[in-house]
Write a structure and sequence with these properties.
This protein has about 425 residues and is α/β, with parallel strands linked by helices. The protein is built from 13 helices and 17 strands. A hairpin with a 3-residue loop joins strand 16 and strand 17.
Length: about 425
């Protein structure tokens, strides 16, 4: 099997327009959430949720898109542009383009125009359906736009695996490069969340934190005993996944080697994880087994950590069951960024790459009363730690029961 590395990263979040800007904010303990205004969400005054992580995208970026020119697709394009530049990968020959793939993920298509068109149909009849209607329906546009703009002709796919879409795209890109289907695959995901429909929909599910409407800093308290749900955010991330020898041959930067990946469906409930963390436990064990790595070698876990009562309990329980207490250091960057939903996995992996590169583990900014498992404390990052580390696991979970875990190793040759 071929060895696979990460040679480029890109992100756009409520804390920064690039991966480096975002990580700089995280290192400083900043929180990108804010009190939303009518300019952000026109109906916000009538809504029970008042906070979120908003990303602004220039209209000129949307105009570049050949398919479904909307904010979600523009965000993933910006992240892809950054990742390609970071990796210094600019394929020119026919062979290079045929050996470059694009695997992107999203929970949904851009929902606002779809609902707008639906209202027009009800008001004006079926002939009011515009030519662009069908373009807005497909999450594959996240992939198609990048493939078209860069003329990439390698394997392509799109993953709609809920909030695990980001790490699903990375896992499948890893498998594709490992098996020789491509030399380079862009793996990414995005979500435009801060709108009326998503905010109200997730509020109705009881997932959002409405206790922090006047204090965005408290909007998402990952692994805190007083966690009360998440605050949703816009965001996108893209990683360049590359065959090791190919990367070395062109002196590409190497952030880390991917040595294991696992995706497990636990089929417990449509929106809730199994309380004992069975699914995410199995996905972490699957990644470890693939790499033949002992759990005692893991130094950092980059958690899904959404700040929900059941989700954090399931993930913390899974960590405890595998690693014991206190166990590895536990990262939780959603306290900084909010939950980027379908975009969260690739954003969080981009941040992990920078943490590994800079030997810097950022604290969870608003954890005041860390939760316990079986009356024991896990190694939650309550303060910044400057420390090199070799192995790190990263977790994602999504509605429907999908759990995805990736195992990264610091590249040393």
């Amino acid at each position: 099997m071929k060895r696979v590395v990460v040679s480029g990263i890109g992100s756009i979040t409520c804390l920064g327009k690039t991966a480096l800007e975002t990580f700089a904010g995280i290192k400083q303990g900043k929180v990108g959430l804010k009190i939303l205004t009518e300019e952000d969400v026109p109906q916000i005054q009538d809504m029970p949720i008042k906070i979120g992580g908003k990303v602004e995208v220039d209209y000129e970026v949307m105009k570049k898109l050949p398919f479904a020119p909307n904010k979600q697709n523009a965000m993933i394009l910006l992240a892809a542009e950054e990742a390609l530049q970071d990796s210094n990968w600019n394929p020119q020959t026919k062979t290079q383009k045929e050996r470059t793939g694009v695997f992107m993920g999203a929970i949904k298509s851009y929902i606002s125009p779809l609902l707008f068109f639906s209202e027009k149909i009800l008001e004006e009849g079926c002939r009011s359906v515009p030519d662009a209607f069908n373009q807005q329906l497909s999450i594959f546009n996240t992939t198609a736009n990048i493939a078209k703009l860069y003329d990439f002709k390698g394997p392509t796919s799109a993953y709609g695996s809920a909030c695990a879409a980001g790490q699903s795209s990375i896992a499948e890109a890893y498998f594709g490069v490992q098996e020789g289907l491509a030399d380079v695959i862009l793996a990414g995901s995005a979500d435009f969340f801060v709108d009326t429909y998503d905010l109200m929909g997730f509020h109705k599910l009881g997932a959002l934190n409405k206790k922090a409407n006047q204090d965005p800093y408290e909007g998402l308290k990952t692994f805190d005993e007083n966690r009360a749900g998440f605050a949703g955010s816009d965001g996108a991330g893209v990683l360049v996944i590359e065959e090791l020898e190919h990367a070395l041959s062109r002196n590409a930067p190497i952030y880390a080697e991917i040595v294991g990946a696992s995706q497990i469906l636990e089929s417990f409930h449509a929106t809730r994880p199994s309380p004992d963390g069975e699914g995410i436990c199995k996905s972490m064990l699957g990644a470890l087994e693939m790499a033949n790595v002992d759990p005692r070698e893991i130094e950092v876990i980059n958690t899904h950590g959404t700040g929900t009562s059941e989700g954090d309990l399931a993930e913390a329980t899974a960590i405890y069951n595998i690693f014991g207490a206190p166990g590895p250091y536990v990262m939780g960057i959603k306290s900084n960024l909010g939950h980027c939903m379908g975009g969260s996995g690739t954003v969080q992996c981009s941040m992990l790459m920078l943490a590994m590169k800079e030997s810097f583990l950022p604290r969870i900014p608003n954890i005041e009363n860390p939760m316990k498992v079986n009356n024991e404390s896990l190694n939650f990052l309550t303060e910044n730690i400057e420390k090199p580390f070799t192995y790190a696991l990263s977790n994602n979970a999504g509605f429907g029961g999908l759990n995805a875990s990736l195992l990264f190793k610091k590249y040393t040759g």
